[in-house]
Design brief:
There is one protein chain. By secondary structure, this protein is α/β, with parallel strands linked by helices. It has 2 domains: about 1-130 and about 270-340, Rossmann fold, CATH 3.40.50.2300; about 135-265, Rossmann fold (3-Layer(aba) Sandwich), CATH 3.40.50.2300. The chain has 13 helices and 14 strands. It has helices at about 1-10, 25-45, 65-75, 90-100, 115-120, 130-145, 160-175, 195-205, 220-230, 245-250, 275-290, 295-315, 320-325; strands at about 15-20, 55-60, 80-85, 105-110, 125, 150-155, 180-190, 210-215, 235-240, 260-265, 330-335, 335-340, 350-355, 360-365. The protein has a 5-stranded parallel sheet with strand order 2-1-3-4-5, sandwiched between helices.
Length: about 375
């Protein structure tokens, strides 16, 4: 009983969170912030970290790099021990050097661009979500299982995330020896919600499959799905890994039915359903926020959980010591089970292909 009392008596540890709370990704960002708060509650109730409770300082990056940089500077000045960040890859890439120079550990929750872990601007980078390079293999393997040749159309978000995702998929299909004719690549900015021109171009191209890369889950992707169905295009629609959250399906309605995608977390499917840490997290999310967590919420919560476990292991908040307890190491007992991080800071994942039927995610196999 002494540990929890001590945790609440000592000076709190500041935990920075930078995520979009407004704009196209605002709803999802708010959900991620809630999930981090949920994990902070679980950790504080168990005694905190190093005998101190955690206190969240949550900031809105508005999906804009310049604002993300301003918030990173603000939190560094506030003396936080770690910043958990990242929905949009361009924002993450802009913030990394700011936090590194301030000697603040920077853990990317969601942003996928491959340079996030390759840039010298953040030599102690850590990321929980899957990377573009990992995701590309999953999509290429799915294409191979359905057709070895054909006509493809890419509908691609024109930024570090979208362009990197498309490049990775193209490279993986070549590596697998698949013969695809990319008849069109249609690029669009992250905020776009009117896809009538793109949908008309897809219809005219008569593709065998369409791959859409759109991280604007609050508005852009649901709008594209609705307009795609309205155009009566017969080609299967493949959404890149991790872009189809329950909120996308809810917003898109019947237009989401039949899409194909893949992801890394399904709270009520094994191996997560029987994972005690995941059970605790799900129960706390339902109690505290009256919601079933999705993948993004799980990644946000797990980012704080992994940091807390590493800090406890080394007995310090030192940026380098905590990072080295994560990078290249196994972290047991997380929401995602016993997880492994590669030497460059990337968390490993297991994927499942799914489709949507009657408004519900149906996992293959």
């Amino acid at each position: 009983m002494a540990a929890p009392r001590l945790a609440h008596a000592a000076t709190p540890i500041g935990i920075g969170v930078i995520i979009p709370l407004s704009g196209g990704a605002g709803r999802q960002g708010q959900d991620v912030a809630n999930a981090v708060q949920c994990m902070a509650t679980l950790i504080n109730d168990a005694g905190g970290v190093l005998g101190r409770r955690l206190e969240l300082l949550i900031r809105d990056d508005e999906s804009t790099p310049a604002i993300g940089v301003a918030k990173a500077n603000e939190l560094a000045s506030a003396g936080v021990a770690v910043v958990l960040e990242g929905w949009n890859s361009p924002v993450t890439l802009a913030m990394q050097p700011i936090l590194a120079r301030a000697d603040v550990l920077d853990i990317t929750m969601i942003s996928k661009a491959d340079p996030i872990l390759a840039s010298a601007a953040n030599p102690l980078a850590i990321r929980l979500n899957s990377a573009n390079a990992q995701d590309a293999k999953v999509i290429a393997d799915y294409l191979k299982s359905r057709m070895n040749a054909g006509r493809l159309v890419f509908v691609t978000e024109n930024d570090a995330y979208g362009n990197g995702a498309q490049h990775g998929i193209e490279e993986e299909t070549k590596r697998l020896g698949l013969s695809y004719d990319i008849v069109k690549t249609l690029k669009f900015p992250f905020p776009q919600t009117d896809f009538r021109v793109e949908v008309t171009s897809i219809h005219d191209a008569k593709p065998d499959a369409v791959i859409v890369i759109d991280a604007n889950e609050g508005a852009g992707l649901p709008a594209f799905l609705q307009q795609y169905v309205q155009a009566r295009i017969d080609a299967p629609l493949i959404c890149t890994v991790g872009t189809v959250s329950p909120s996308v399906i809810e917003t898109a309605g019947a237009a989401a039915n039949g899409l194909i995608s893949a992801d890394i977390y399904f709270p009520e499917t094994e191996p997560f359903a029987s994972n005690r840490e995941n059970q605790r997290f799900v129960a706390q999310m339902q109690k505290q926020f009256k919601t079933m967590p999705d993948k993004y919420m799980a990644l946000g919560a797990a980012a704080l959980q992994v940091w807390a476990k590493a800090a406890a292991k080394v007995g310090s908040l030192d940026r380098k010591a905590v990072a080295e307890a994560i990078r290249g190491q196994d972290i047991p007992g997380t929401i995602f089970g016993d997880v492994r991080f590669s030497a460059d800071g990337q968390m490993a994942h297991h994927y499942a292909i799914f489709t949507v039927r009657a408004g519900k995610i149906v996992v293959a196999g």
